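Appendix B, example 12.
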Amino acid sequence: MSAIAFLAPDPDGYALIDIRDSDSAQPLRAVFPVSREDFAQVVAQTEAELGPRWAMLRTTPWMQPLISAGVYLAKAHVLSLAQRIMHRSPMASGQLADFDLEHPVAGCWTH
């Protein structure tokens, strides 16, 4: 089984983690909140159990607490970095230049 874990800010706390099967996108666990105090331990445990690909919009605020606790992610995708790379790619369409991960434009991927 291959898993992907999405990290997102929790408006009521520190982080939300959504873990899904990479092939079917079916949830492997219910989305769950994690406090700042438990964050590194929960991520380390998830990394050990599932070895997921982690996806996050940016590394802030996630990576500093993980590095400080000695937790390293084997596979991680930083979506804002991917966006910057694609913006500079000659293969990117003009529509991609209008796409902002934090404020997606409705219908920007349609032709």
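The longest helix spans residues 39-50. The two ends are 34 Å apart (CA to CA).
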